[in-house]
Amino acid sequence: MVQHTREVIEYRGETYFAGAREQDKIWIVQIPGETYANDEGFEQREEIRRKLVPISELDAWYRDEFTGKWRGQPFVLHPNRDGTMGADYVGPSQVWAEDNGLDGDPYNGYHKVLDPDELEDVQVDRTDHLARWKEKNPG
C-alpha cells in the first residue's frame, strides 16, 4: 500500500521526503515518526531534519498518486494514519457529490473520509523523477 502521496526519496536504504532542489543536489527530509539508522550530516531547520545530497547518489526519487472509485465515481486518495482514506472527488457532478454526503463546495472541491473496503478499482500511478533526471543528465 502507498504510504506517502508526496515526493519520496530513497537514499542509502532509507526513505525520506523530497525537499527543494539546488542544481544537481536535493534536500532529503526525515519523515516525522520514522527512525533512521544514519543521522550523520542532518541539520535541524525549525521542525524538520534535512540534508543536502547529490541527486546522482539517490536510490530512488518518485511520487505515487493513488486513485480509485467510490460508488462508481472517481477520487484521488490519500492514506490517513488511522487506516482510513482521504478522498478528493474528481468527478463532474456537484449534485452527485452533495447527494452522497461529500463535504465541500464546487469552488474548493468535495472530500470524504472513506474506509478502504468501500473503494474499488484502486490504482497507483508512479512518477519516477530520478529516471527523468537521469535522462536529462546522462553519465
Q: What tags apply to this protein structure?
A:
single chain; 139 residues; mainly beta; eleven-stranded antiparallel sheet; 2 helices
What can you tell me about this protein's structure?
The protein is mainly beta and 139 residues long. 10% of the residues lie in helices and 50% in strands. It is built from two helices and eleven strands; from the N terminus they run E-E-E-E-E-E-E-E-H-E-E-E-H. Strands 1, 2, 3, 4, 5, 6, 7, 8, 9, 10 and 11 form an eleven-stranded antiparallel β-sheet that branches. The longest helix has 8 residues, at 129-136. The radius of gyration is 18 Å and the shape is elongated.
* Principal-axes shape call: elongated
First-residue to last-residue Cα separation: 33 Å
Could you name the ranges where pLDDT drops below 50 across 5 or more consecutive residues? none
**Radius of gyration using CA atoms only:** 18 Å
Order of helices and strands: EEEEEEEEHEEEH
Helix content: 10-25%
Total beta-strand segments: 11
Largest sheet, described in full? 11 strands, antiparallel
User: What amount of the residues lies in strands?
Assistant: over 45%
Number of contiguous helices = 2
Question: Average pLDDT across residues?
Answer: 92
Supply the helix-strand structural class.
mainly beta
